[in-house]
Automatic annotation (TrEMBL):
<feature type="binding site">
    <location>
        <position position="212"/>
    </location>
    <ligand>
        <name>Zn(2+)</name>
    </ligand>
</feature>
<dbReference type="Pfam" id="PF00962">
    <property type="entry name" value="A_deaminase"/>
</dbReference>
<dbReference type="InterPro" id="IPR032466">
    <property type="entry name" value="Metal_Hydrolase"/>
</dbReference>
<feature type="binding site">
    <location>
        <position position="27"/>
    </location>
    <ligand>
        <name>substrate</name>
    </ligand>
</feature>
<dbReference type="InterPro" id="IPR028893">
    <property type="entry name" value="A_deaminase"/>
</dbReference>
<feature type="binding site">
    <location>
        <position position="23"/>
    </location>
    <ligand>
        <name>Zn(2+)</name>
    </ligand>
</feature>
<dbReference type="InterPro" id="IPR001365">
    <property type="entry name" value="A_deaminase_dom"/>
</dbReference>
<feature type="binding site">
    <location>
        <position position="304"/>
    </location>
    <ligand>
        <name>Zn(2+)</name>
    </ligand>
</feature>
<keyword id="KW-0862">Zinc</keyword>
<keyword id="KW-0479">Metal-binding</keyword>
<keyword id="KW-0378">Hydrolase</keyword>
<feature type="binding site">
    <location>
        <position position="185"/>
    </location>
    <ligand>
        <name>substrate</name>
    </ligand>
</feature>
<feature type="binding site">
    <location>
        <position position="25"/>
    </location>
    <ligand>
        <name>Zn(2+)</name>
    </ligand>
</feature>
<feature type="active site" description="Proton donor">
    <location>
        <position position="215"/>
    </location>
</feature>
<dbReference type="InterPro" id="IPR006330">
    <property type="entry name" value="Ado/ade_deaminase"/>
</dbReference>
<protein>
    <recommendedName>
        <fullName>Adenosine deaminase</fullName>
        <ecNumber>3.5.4.4</ecNumber>
    </recommendedName>
</protein>
<feature type="domain" description="Adenosine deaminase">
    <location>
        <begin position="18"/>
        <end position="358"/>
    </location>
</feature>
Length: 388
């Protein structure tokens, strides 16, 4: 086996490294076995497979469609089994547990309450069930020796007309588990400006929101999300690359919108595997995250839908480490970016950075220094991690 490059984390180190996740859909991250269980319990007979392994594979294959619209069709099955309080509590608890076991220390997990009303729950009951599940999952994670904090983002579906109501719901629960608002769903044909009332309302309430933009549709969507709607962060935002030109000698020039995004430190919630599936990027190596990271955009790494993408935070980082040779320093940079961009209060973000993230990476980097000290030919420079 090839000796790993100094500072380039091993899969085990990637898993142990503290990670921060800002873009993860609750209805896109169920355990396949749980989908099967709840379908059986609630009498949902629409599943394409009832063997958990086969079902997991079915989700991945079906989502590997090259189109966002087809990708989104798979959510009919997960939403179908998330219609009762018990199901929502279970799914949310397992979500927190799974993320914690993967080394995620802080997560903002989103879902659309309006998609969970089919069996008679009210919007409030949906939010309270999911909150109860997250608290239960945090508690179980702690028992297993993992620490995690999970905040909810309430999503409104961009093709629907309930965004004002969902924004009010997010505001109502802002001191009890809900940290912000989002809009999601098919992008083409549903510009974010359809939901201006909701965004204006949230701004007047000094609340926070992110918008899925620049995923299936290009710069106009990003421009509207920022300059008309006032988004605090961009879900995906990969198409910002269309406003960046790379010359033959590697010189780079940014258009007005790309400059604005970088200058204002607008956080980009990038989800590499999801982008490959929906056709927003061709390969990991060609994913815009490589260039955007080099240019110091406020880039973050995320999972989007762990079930549909067969992924986890660790796997996303493994792919990036393979494609770009990222080191622990890069991982820490992405993680601090994400923590800085979270919707919880500044002092709490700072405490996470100083008390959890930095010490966690320092410990992992010390493992490299320790190893380097045991090599026949010690590294010339002092810090192994700095070589990356
Ligand atoms: O990558 C995405 N782009 C746009 N919408 C998405 C994506 N992933 C999931 N959803 C949509 O968000 C809803 C609430 O979680 C999901 O039901 C799905 O329709
Ligand atoms: Zn998403």
């Amino acid at each position: 086996m090839q000796k790993p490059k100094p500072g380039v984390p091993t899969p085990d180190q990637i898993r142990r490294a503290p990670k921060v996740l800002l873009h993860d859909h609750l209805d896109g991250g169920l355990r396949p076995g749980t989908v099967v269980d709840i379908a059986r319990e609630t009498g949902y007979d629409g599943l394409p497979e009832t063997d958990p392994d086969k079902l997991g594979m079915w989700f991945r294959d079906a989502a590997d469609s090259g189109s966002l619209e087809r990708y989104l069709e798979t959510f009919a099955h997960t939403c179908a089994v998330m219609q009762t309080r018990d199901a929502l509590v279970r799914v949310a608890a397992e979500c927190a547990e799974d993320l914690a076991a993967d080394g995620v220390v802080y997560a903002e997990v989103r879902y659309a309450p309006e998609q969970h009303l089919e069996a008679g729950l009210t919007l409030e009951e949906v939010v309270e069930a999911v909150n109860a599940g997250f608290r239960e999952g945090e508690r179980r994670a702690k028992e297993d020796g993992n620490r995690i904090r999970v905040g909810a983002l309430l999503t409104a579906m961009r093709h629907a007309a309930r965004s004002q109501e969902i924004a009010e719901l997010a505001n109502h629960y802002r001191d009890s588990g809900v940290v912000g608002f989002d809009i999601a769903g098919a992008e083409a044909g549903y510009p974010p400006t359809r939901h201006l009332d909701a965004f204006d309302y949230l701004k007047r309430e000094n609340n926070h929101f992110t918008i899925h933009a620049g995923e299936a549709f290009g710069l106009p969507s990003i421009w509207q999300a920022l300059q008309w709607c006032g988004a605090d962060r961009l879900g995906h935002g990969v198409r910002i690359i269309d406003d960046i030109e790379e010359g033959p000698g590697g010189e780079v020039s940014l258009g007005r919108l790309a400059s604005y995004v970088r200058d204002k430190r607008v956080p980009l919630e990038m989800c590499p595997t999801s982008n490959l599936q929906t056709g927003a990027a061709a390969s990991y190596a060609e994913h815009p995250i490589g260039l955007l990271r080099r240019l110091y955009f406020r880039v973050t790494v995320n999972t989007d839908n762990r079930l549909m993408s067969g992924t986890s935070m660790s796997r996303e980082f493994e792919h990036l480490v393979d494609a770009f040779g990222y080191t622990l320093d890069d991982m820490q940079w992405f993680t601090v970016n994400a923590m800085k961009s979270a919707f919880i209060p500044f002092d709490e973000r700072l405490a996470m950075i100083n008390e959890v993230i930095k010490p966690g990476y320092a410990e992992l980097k010390a493992e490299w220094l320790f190893e380097a000290g045991h090599r026949e030919r010690p590294l010339a420079s002092g810090s192994a991690a700095a070589e990356g």
